[in-house]
Amino acid sequence: MEVTPVDRDDLRDVTGLWLAARVDSGSSREAATRLVADGRLGWALRRPGVNVFVARLDGEAVGYAITTENPFGLSPQAELAIEQLWVAPAARRHGVAKSLIAAVLSAAERSGCELVVSNVPQASRDANRFFARLGFSSVIVRRVVSTSQLRRKLAPESCETGNELLRRRRSLRSRALPAASRPF
Question: Taking the CB of residue 136, how many other CB atoms lie within 10 A of it?
Answer without folding.
Answer: 16
